[in-house]
Amino acid sequence: MGFELPEILKISKQMQEKLVGKKITNIILTDRLNSMIKQGMSNLDKRKEEIINTNITRIYPKGKWIFLEFHNDNLLMLGEIIGKFSYFEKTNSLPSKYHVAFQFSDESYLTFQSSLYAFLTIATREEKRMHRYAGNIGPSPNEPDFSQDYFLKVMSQNEKKPIKAALNMQDLISGLGNVYINDILYDSKIHPKSKISSLTSNDLNTIYISIIRIINSAIELGGCSEEFDLYDLTGKYNRIMSKNRPHCSRCGTKIVKENVLGSSSYYCPNCQKIQ
Predict the structure, then answer these.
(1) If both were cysteines, with which of 71, 96, 141, 199 could 215 make a disulfide (CB 3.0 to 4.6 Å apart)?
(2) CA-to-CA distance for 133 and 171, rounded, in angstroms?
(3) Which spans of this chain does the record mark as coiled coil (predicted)?
């Protein structure tokens, strides 16, 4: 699992409330960060001085990313996050395990512990614009640009793709990942492997309605019940489809778990027949 739009919105808001106006006085890197550095997902080892002792002026979310802007026009880009952030007002006792800790001028800390990977990257505005992922983020379901017409246009331009792949194209539809896509497709009664070309206009309209309903519900509930916020609290959105649901709540059929496009899909073979 990882942070998707509802979790990003919640954590970004908490960061705005606690961090805007503060200065980072120290960035503590542990050996745990080395794998992300080697993968090119973090440059904190080489560029951390670029954001130290300059005020955070703005924090905002976009898709699966959170951007921290600094007074000197540099940014800290946090994205594709699988892990946990923790905020501490004043403490001499940080978690026993973490990848990086940001210390602020008021003696508060923000730590991050990765459970798989994440981008933790310092960039200039131009580098952000040119970044393969952070610079190419499409509209999210909570944004006005994500209209039904826009969604149908994206689908028509990607007819050869399976629907699961299309819903995960962050450059066109940002913020959705495996957790919410599983729930959206179950709610829509659509098999994750169904090619877009095989879906009717009614199918696509149903998917759009499910996206809006499920994502708005998850946002209102503070994200998924399996993900933590800055204060070690989970959201209240309970996944519809997961390893904890053995049978379909509609028809009683045994739920199937299958690797689809590199991640686990849960679906009802009776309600979500492949088209």
Answers:
(1) 141
(2) 8
(3) none
Q: What pTM was estimated for this model as a whole? A: 0.95
* Structural tokens at position 101: 């800790």
Q: Domains plus CATH for the chain?
A: 5-130 (3.20.190.10), 148-227+237-267 (1.10.8.50)
- Give 247's DSSP letter: B
Of the candidates 177, 158, 155, the residue with the CA atom closest to the CA atom of residue 168: 177
Q: What Å distances lie between residue 129 and 27, 42, 48, 123, 187, CA to CA?
A: 25, 17, 20, 9, 36
Q: What is the radius of gyration, based on Cα positions, of the chain?
A: 20
Q: Which pLDDT score is estimated for 262?
A: 81
Residue corresponding to tokens 């933590």? 228
Phi and psi, residue 79, nearest 5°: -155, 165
Q: How many Cβ atoms from other residues are within 10 Å of residue 90's Cβ?
A: 8
DSSP symbol at 42: B
- The one-letter amino acid code at 85 reads F
CA-nearest of 183, 190, 216 to 205 is: 190
Q: 145 burial class (0-12, 13-18, 19+ CB within 10 angstroms)?
A: exposed
SS3 of residue 56 by DSSP: strand
Copy the structure tokens of residue 106. Answer: 């008021």
User: What is the rounded CA–CA span in Å between residue 87 and residue 231?
Assistant: 6
Buried b (16+ CB within 10 A) or exposed e, 37-56: beeebbbbeeebebbeeeeb
The residue-averaged pLDDT of 69-82 equals 97
Q: Please list the alpha-helical segments (H only) found in the chain.
A: 5-19, 34-38, 44-47, 125-130, 148-156, 163-167, 178-188, 201-220
Q: Kindly list the distances between the CA atom of residue 190 and the CA atoms of 44, 57, 169, 206, 237, in Å, as whole numbers in the listed order.
A: 42, 44, 18, 9, 21
User: How would residue 226 be classed by pLDDT, with cut points 50, 70 and 90?
Assistant: very high
